[in-house]
Design goal:
alpha+beta; four-stranded mixed β-sheet; 24% strand; 4 strands; globular
C-alpha cells in the first residue's frame, strides 16, 4: 500500500502521478492535504510525498528509478 500526499491543482502532483504510473506502484491511494489541517501542516510545503505502509516517505522530485530503488 502506498499513499501519495498531494494538493488540488498541483502540477508537480500530476507529474508525480505520471511517474508512479510508469513505475507501476501497486495499491496507490491519493490523499489531498488541502482539507485537513494536520496534513496541511505536515505536508503543505512538501507535496507531493509518497509514503509506504511502513511509514517511509519519498519527497518529490523522484523518477521511476528512484521509486524502484526506494521500494526495495
Amino acid at each position: 500500500m502506498f499513499t501519495l500526499f498531494q494538493r488540488d491543482d498541483c502540477h508537480l502532483c500530476d507529474q508525480a502521478l505520471a511517474v508512479l504510473a510508469q513505475a507501476q506502484v501497486p495499491g496507490l491511494e491519493s490523499v489531498f492535504v488541502d482539507d485537513d489541517a494536520a496534513l496541511e501542516a505536515r505536508y503543505g510545503l512538501r507535496v507531493p510525498v509518497l509514503r509506504d505502509a511502513q511509514g517511509r516517505e519519498l519527497d518529490w522530485p523522484f523518477d521511476v528509478a528512484a521509486v524502484d530503488a526506494w521500494r526495495r
